[in-house]
Design goal:
This protein has 403 residues and is mostly beta strands. The chain is 10% helix and 39% strand. A hairpin with a 2-residue loop joins strand 13 (204-206) and strand 14 (209-216).
Length: 403
């Protein structure tokens, strides 16, 4: 009788490359040592990724979901789940099966940095390897914290925490610190923040550096009001090698408060930005020609679509929506919520009048039930990686525990 472990190498690789779900991959690893070793081989990982539709991570209802997108056809569905059956590949489970409610997620090189809704946990996670590491704060985390995960020129993994508590008008304060996973330590950074970043806008990682949408810091008058129409907007890069923010990088448009701006990555090499003006139905997307910590250049408009004929007078929410694009098909998939923040919808738009909508289901955590503001659906491109989460330098034979 032929055992699975006796199958030829090329046949084993072919079988494993057809496994659609990372959750199934984790189950297969326990089948035999050979399959486990093969699934962790870098060459197989590249072959495995090429066989997949485009994978994205979606945070919805304080959970993370793995989704596949095929721009040549439509959004795939392979599992009938309770919510969004059209797009979900499966629910990502890890973090010691504690199933925490995730409020924020930042993706870098196949690793996820997750902060929990209760503001008590910050966890680095590799879903493909099932590896996690909990990061403890020096004092306490804050609801307005902005996090980013990156690495320096030596591939040392680091976490940025930035807090600008501008809501406390009488006594505002800024906290900027960096955590080194190798040394297991937090350090304060000296930052002259003459700019501000809204905590609900998510940044993204490119080549180990983190990029954010930022704007000129507002000068409040005695009544707490200001005209923001002339407020400068720009990109900011945090360089994890130099451990500092770079210069203001120009955007291809001028925007102000309550206008829609969202960032996305293209193959983790270029940056894309979506813009929709206030009371305008014109959605424009630009892609960079060059993006570095100290320089950026933009192409001409990648996509420009008047969405009124398809969706009516619709304004995508300004508070941190997200999108992905397909350069070959010149399509954009935009994730949004209705005005009551109850239903989530995916809007697929392209040239020559191409459009489609997909209902992603009702959010059980909307404000009428919880009394709190619910974040927008967040998506980011995802590629399984064999990069391991760095552990702190061990003393003697003591081994650090993952959480």
């Amino acid at each position: 009788m032929t055992m699975i472990s006796d199958l030829p190498q090329d046949l084993v690789e072919n079988v494993l490359s057809r496994v659609p779900l990372m959750t199934s991959m984790r189950k297969l690893r326990s089948t035999c040592k050979r399959w486990n070793t093969l699934s962790r081989d870098p060459d197989f990982a590249k072959h495995f990724v090429k066989g997949l539709s485009r994978l994205i991570i979606m945070r919805s209802q304080f959970r993370l979901w793995l989704m596949s997108v095929d721009f040549h056809g439509s959004l795939n569905h392979k599992d009938d789940l309770d919510v969004a059956p059209y797009v979900k590949e499966g629910k990502l489970t890890s973090l010691n099966n504690s199933d925490p409610e995730i409020s924020k997620v930042f993706h870098c090189n196949g690793l996820l940095l997750c902060s929990t809704k209760d503001k008590r946990r910050l966890v680095v996670w590799n879903p493909y390897l099932g590896q996690t590491r909990r990061i403890k704060p020096r004092i306490a985390f804050h609801k307005r914290d902005i996090y980013a995960l990156g690495y320096d020129v030596n591939k040392n993994q680091k976490i940025l925490r930035f807090l600008d508590d501008y809501a406390t008008f009488r006594n505002p304060y800024v906290v900027c610190e960096i955590y080194d996973l190798k040394s297991n330590s937090w350090r304060d950074l000296d930052v002259n923040a003459d700019w501000e970043m809204d905590y609900y806008h998510h940044g993204l990682s490119l080549k180990g550096s983190a990029y954010f949408f930022a704007k000129e810091k507002m000068e409040w008058d005695g009544e707490g009001e200001i005209d923001v129409t002339d407020q400068e907007t720009f990109l900011l890069c945090f360089d994890f090698t130099r451990e500092r923010f770079g210069p203001r990088l120009p955007m291809p448009f001028h925007s102000h408060a309550e206008e829609t701006v969202a960032l996305s990555s293209v193959r983790e090499e270029q940056l894309a930005v979506l813009y929709q003006g206030d009371s305008s139905c014109l959605v424009e997307i630009w892609v960079t020609n060059r993006i570095e910590p100290n320089a950026v250049s933009w192409r001409k408009v990648f996509l420009s679509v008047d969405i009124e004929p398809f969706f009516g007078l619709h304004q995508f929410d300004f508070s941190g929506g997200s999108f992905i694009i397909d350069e070959e098909q010149k399509l954009a998939l935009i994730f949004d919520k209705d005005k009551e923040y109850i239903h989530s919808t995916a809007y697929l738009i392209g040239e020559n009048g191409y459009y489609k909508t997909l209902d992603l289901g009702e959010d059980r955590y909307h404000r009428e039930k919880t009394g709190e503001y619910t974040s927008m659906p967040l998506v980011c491109s995802y590629f399984p990686t064999l990069v391991k989460i760095q552990q702190r330098a061990r003393r003697g034979k003591r081994k650090e525990r993952d959480y």
